[in-house]
Amino acid sequence: MADRVRVRFAPSPTGEPHIGNIRTAIFDWLFARHLGGEFIIRVEDTDQSRKVEGSVELMLKSLKWLGIDWDEGPDIGGEYGPYYQSERLERYQEAADALLASGDAYRCFCSSERLSELRKQQQVDRAVVTGYDGKCSDVSNSDALDRVNAGESAVIRFRMPDDGVTEGNDEIHGKVSFENNLLDDFVIIKSDGFPTYHLASIVDDHLMEISHVTRTIEWLPSYPRHLQVYRAMGWEPPTFVHLPLVLATDRTKLAKRHGATSVLEFQEMGMLPSAMMNYLTLLGWSLDDKTEIFSSDELIKHFTLERVSKSDAVFDIEKLNWMNGVHIRDSSPEELADALSGYWSEYPTSEFPSPPDRDFALKVIPLVHARMKTLTDAAPLLPFFFQDRIGYEPEELVQKGMDSERTRIVLNAASEKLSTLDPFDTESIENLLRPLSKELDVKVGQLLGSLRVATTGLKVSPPIFETIEALGRDQTVKSIQDAIERL
Ligand code: GLU
């Protein structure tokens, strides 16, 4: 193992941040932070045709939201930059030139028509050895250069050994071995001059002194190719860690048709970042097969590659919802106020004319905390804070066993007492209203029922004493007076 732990997350900017990729980023980050190493973000944007504008920003935003920080990256730079592969093209060309010079690579002039014919024929023949047939592998370097100078289009291919095996040692799967004759000579530089992943990632992992490459198991078939490039370049390969996949409940790859797949969608659904981090970490890692709830600090403390599973993980939205509820319940009012005010400013809801601030969030948390499973649940419980005139039918003020006249008397008495109550807190409000109902000879439920409709317009509301405190004396008294007039 290298002296320093340096791991990179290497997203391709091809769309919204998929939770499968983010799970890899989380593993990278936890691993680096657990060992006091460095976490680097590198953007793999060499496939120009798949590039989607704005993806890098969304990716970084999602990582920040989850509480992930990085030591080097596209936005902050660093000693090993640039961190966009499209800005590092000359490094890949240098490596390709070295491989051409050593005979480990060659230029290939085969047309795409020839290659697709070849593929078709191999399918018809049910060929065991598939892929490129090595037609251009004998073209000498100087002939090839002449053809390139004459304007012929070429790619550069890496020359795989014809026989023998390539052996690797994966951190999770142990010893793995691959028959070389089954692996074709693959493209390392495309005809547009851009490198493929097979070259760019290796050059960068080497130059950036990456100690551990963590990527999903889908990349395992590329592992022997990459080891061969390391050998040909005379570079020591990093440690490879092939992570299990994140599948949907039908055990196919998690995709749009299964529902939300982007971290941003889960953010919009009102998930807490701590719950998301907790849940995604458990997709392929466990501490002891039974502990389920972890804070991010606890995850950093416990995360090791030894506990990463070999088998694929299944994403289950029900489980995430449950876990989110637990994280919300376990949050302090301050933490929840941060999350709620952040959520409201990111996703304004129709309940609020403009996003309420953190102070407001802190004030209303006692009203909603116990009833929330996601951050979206809070606003619909609180519309009455933002209405000048609360909407209800006057009859709704009149509780069972009461009439308008008695309701007016009861509300008047409550309004009078509340208008001078000091301090105006939950306990004093309760200590005032319970005895008042006795004094007025009505049931507590009748008094509180009328007050609830008068102050919130709702028949079922958050806890009424807390609600009255949060509304404050002025608004409460104003609403009760308004109710009396409406009766
Ligand atoms: N750009 C590759 C991807 O997004 C990265 C694979 C790797 O981490 O090496 O899948």
Fold and architecture overview:
- The strands form 5 sheets. Strands 3-4-7 form a 3-stranded antiparallel sheet. Strands 1-2 form a two-stranded parallel sheet.
- It has 487 residues and is mainly alpha-helical.
- It has helices spanning 19-34, 55-65, 89-102, 112-124, 141-149, 197-207, 223-233, 263-268, 273-281, 296-302, 317-330, 333-346, 358-368, 404-419, 426-440, 444-456, 464-471, 473-486, and strands at 6-9, 38-41, 105-108, 155-158, 165-170, 174-179, 187-189, 212-216, 239-243, 246-247, 313-314.
- The chain starts with 5 loop residues before the first strand and ends with a helix.
- The radius of gyration is 32 Å and the shape is elongated.
- The relative contact order is 0.09.
- Among the domains are: 88-243, Rossmann fold; 331-386; 388-486, Arc Repressor Mutant, subunit A (Orthogonal Bundle), CATH 1.10.10.350.
- The protein is 44% helix and 9% strand.
- The chain contains 18 helices and 11 strands.
- The mean pLDDT is 95.
- The longest helix is centred in the N-terminal third of the chain and has 16 residues, at 19-34.
- It binds glutamic acid.
- Glutamic acid (GLU) binds at residues 10-12, 44, 201, 213, 215.
